């Protein structure tokens, strides 16, 4: 018998653990998985594989849950986790705002009719065009991230005779327990102005000295896939101390954004905080810190990305080859991989997979689901257990791929990007079509 660490399997090797899937995911008696009432077998037939599937109702519910739980905050969906016109409309209709960080994301949101006053613009190196667009369309907030940017934006706004509302991105010196590439609040990284070094206070001074920008407050974003609220509590105390210092000097800033980063469960071992509890904890952490510092509680904001888009999405693949490596595990190769989901190689992202197209039996077998790319790091699911009856042509579905999969997708090995299909009430609708070779080769003009 192979001795290997296998995850807990409270739902069986091919079970659907509810916390990992959109809430409109069920397995029919014949073993076929349906999402939003659409059988993944039908979806695969119509749109091919791989395909990203988004449960529209789940996405809207998650926007709604954040809006309600954080009713006394401004809530912005972080578009970088996944954005297309349909999603921009879902977000707009839910009543929450949108966080963008490039010209492309901003143009896409505006082209979908997203109200500019509910958009916040981020970016550590915003282009002149990005700043101009933001000013011209009167986006709700611009989060300034460097001294150069403050000067550039001040000049631009003065030329146009406007006073854009800005927040200062503050680095609070906390290193969340997450992957290096998604930790954004320790001192030695590219985002924000350090509070400890005095840079954040200097940024505030520079904005006031310019006499043009409408400084509303501070912004902290600690990183991503953060479980619990310990790091937020630390970050909040640091930001509130700076707000208190500024207030003492007669400069009372009315706003504080806590950024995003709220974790989701990708595998059975992980558990996300319920949104209502998250809201309560953050609210009371700010309340406590403000009481201790003797300042009024500012207007608060959060920017959930993954926590809205992640569990709303899944990816459907087809199995192409299977290798049994005696004494190790079974390698199941699917028709996608690191071009449609780069999170495993990039961030050690973890996932599970299930056989989605039929009832499958056999002994629990340790498996690794790998992609089709020429790179040994091309792993979709590093460690999982599936019934031994998995065979060629089976459909595999991977939950939790709604965040940072399509948005980080790429054309490694000249593989075209898969389509994005929205499902709702038994209907499937293409919202982003899959790339064709004409799309890809059309760029090659040499
Ligand atoms: C990435 C990012 C977010 C969203 O992070 P999630 O982990 O997806 O919630 C929010 N705010 C800013 C500034 C970000 O860079």
From TrEMBL:
Positions where N6-(pyridoxal phosphate)lysine occurs in the chain: 80
Residues annotated as domain Orn/DAP/Arg decarboxylase 2 N-terminal: 58-309
InterPro entries attached to this UniProt entry: Ala_racemase/Decarboxylase_C, DAP_deCOOHase_LysA, De-COase2_C, De-COase2_N, De-COase2_pyr-phos_BS, Orn/DAP/Arg_de-COase, PLP-binding_barrel
Reaction catalysed by this enzyme: meso-2,6-diaminopimelate + H(+) = L-lysine + CO2
Pathway this chain belongs to: Amino-acid biosynthesis; L-lysine biosynthesis via DAP pathway; L-lysine from DL-2,6-diaminopimelate: step 1/1
Domain Orn/DAP/Arg decarboxylase 2 C-terminal: 52-402
Gene3D superfamilies for this protein: Alanine racemase (3.20.20.10), Lyase, Ornithine Decarboxylase, Chain A, domain 1 (2.40.37.10)
UniProt EC number: 4.1.1.20
Active site: 374
Positions of pyridoxal 5'-phosphate binding: 261, 303-306, 404
GO biological process: lysine biosynthetic process via diaminopimelate
GO MF, one example: diaminopimelate decarboxylase activity
Xref: Pfam families: Orn_Arg_deC_N, Orn_DAP_Arg_deC
Major enzyme class: lyase
Cofactor(s) recorded in Swiss-Prot or TrEMBL: pyridoxal 5'-phosphate
Keywords: Amino-acid biosynthesis, Decarboxylase, Lyase, Lysine biosynthesis, Pyridoxal phosphate
Binding residues annotated for substrate, in chain numbering: 306, 343, 347, 404
Subunit structure and binding partners: Homodimer.
Family, per entry: Belongs to the Orn/Lys/Arg decarboxylase class-II family. LysA subfamily.
Described function: Specifically catalyzes the decarboxylation of meso-diaminopimelate (meso-DAP) to L-lysine.
Protein name according to UniProt: Diaminopimelate decarboxylase
Gene name of the encoded protein: lysA
